[in-house]
Amino acid sequence: MSITDGIRQTELGKARAAASPARPRLYHQSQFRLPQLPAHIQPLIDQSALETSRYNREFTEIRMIGKGGYGKVYKAMHRLDGEAYAIKKIMINVARLQRIEAKGEDEVDNLLGEVRALAKLDHPNIVRYHSGWLEFSPLAHNEPSVLTLHLQMAIYPFNLAKYLSPSQSSTPTTPCSPSEIMDMPHPPIRHCFHTASSLHIMLAILDGVQYIHSRGIVHRDIKPGNIFLCIREEPALGRVPMFRIGDFGLASFLAQPEGQTPVSSEVSQAVARLTRKRRVPLSPVGTEPYCAPWNPSSSGKVSAKLDVYSLGIVLCELLCQFGTSTERSITLSTLKSGKLPQGFEDMIENGLGLTHEQAPSGLGRKIGDLILGMIHTNEDDRASCEDVRRTVNAILERIAKMN
After folding, report:
1. Measured between alpha carbons, how far is 309 from 9 in angstroms, rounded to an integer?
2. What CATH number should be reported for the domain whose range is 158-402?
3. Domain 3-154 is classified in which CATH homologous superfamily?
4. Is 140 helix (H, G, I), strand (E, B) or coil?
5. What's the pTM value of the predicted model, to 2 decimals?
6. Is cis: bond before 257, omega within 30 of 0?
7. What averages of pLDDT result for each successive group of 10 residues across the chain (403 residues)?
8. CA angle at 259 for the pair 257 and 262, rounded to the nearest 5°
9. Is there a common fold for 3-154 and 158-402?
10. What's the pLDDT score for residue 274?
11. Positive or negative, the Cα torsion across 252, 254, 259, 260?
């Protein structure tokens, strides 16, 4: 039986009349059997999961920790090892399965793009991926089970957005577990906004970005909300935040110059399969204000400099302490027009902790020029990751000599 026949049979009578046109139709477990699903997706579904959910069998759901157009992310405790994980649930609706039946393997590759991209990555500045599977699972309690893609990932206490946000909460004096930190309304440590500290954070994030580029992947949605933190206890330094890039839902294949072999052929070939049918849309991809403006000269190719633009906006946030969300929004909007925040150079000089005799150092202007170079609207004139690394290291060397 084809997928179309299955849909017709299950949507007759009252069920069809009651269906809401505004909500994507989903494959309910009670309505569909495995043979009615597209042939290309059948082997990917655990047969035993049709009777008992792997998610319910192996995990105890604690609470939802995030949601978006892709689906929802839950904090869940693994029943066997007792550890908490982030489980991302991506619901597969009828329209998606129709595309799978029509396009076959290519559409399955698009569906599993994030899973397969994460599975190829192993780096201290990238979110750790554990497992992925397809099964029928309820969207929420007391709702029918629908076909859902699950991604099991390491869980991190909070993200860079929270680390940068203002708060009046006090800092706990006793060590906290990652689960305890995540359940707090505010993280136990916060960014100091010192110039040197901000630049070191940028280098850590840049390490992760350059790594995924070397593996043939462009993230396309770098932002504070997708940069996660865990806290490591260092004997000499105390609590040290570690930064990891996550959420590869918009990741795409890095275009290679004609005739050039990718750095990592095995990984790049896999990612190329996932994205060979994709084209760069005629509008920015990602999240405002971090997404770069569309570049008409890109010829449909995905460039690593898309991520550099996002990093430029993030660097400004690392350096500028905002009192309100409105102030942040106005400042970043002004920055996207090519103008630095008012008093930016003086703020950088003050953040260096220099004596009156040492100031001005000229580093405020140099850092300002770096940010503007990272967010240049012309992709050809925009700084590369290596340009950013070279400039940041040179600035840090000067700061070290001053102190």
Report:
1. 50
2. 1.10.510.10
3. Phosphorylase Kinase; domain 1 (3.30.200.20)
4. coil
5. 0.78
6. no
7. 42 40 48 59 62 85 84 93 94 84 82 82 94 82 80 91 71 42 57 92 97 93 94 77 90 57 47 48 72 71 92 97 92 94 87 65 92 95 97 94 80
8. 65
9. no
10. 47
11. negative
Please give the single-letter amino acid code of residue 146: V
- Residue owning tokens 């299955």: 6
Residue 173 DSSP code: S
Radius of gyration for the chain, computed over Cα atoms and rounded to the nearest angstrom: 24
Q: Are 214 and 264 in contact (CB under 8 A)?
A: yes
Is the distance from CB of 226 to CB of 114 less than 8 angstroms? Answer: no
CA angle centred on 389, ends 215 and 367, rounded to 5°: 140
**Which pLDDT score, from 0 to 100, does residue 318 have?**
96
Omega of the bond leading into 360 within 30 degrees of 0 (cis): yes
Domain boundaries, the chain: 3-154, 158-402
Q: Which of 386, 123, 117 is nearest to 253 (CA)?
A: 117
Closest CA relative to residue 113, chosen from 96, 125, 135, 95: 96
- For 263, phi and psi rounded to 5 degrees? -60, -45
Please check if 103 is assigned to a binding site. no
- For residue 399, how many other CB atoms are within 10 A of its CB? 18
Structure tokens at 274: 């996932």
Structure tokens at 317: 């946030």
Q: What's the burial of 347, exposed, middle or buried (CB within 10 Å: 0-12/13-18/19+)? A: middle
Q: What angle do CA 198, 201, 204 make, to 5 degrees?
A: 155
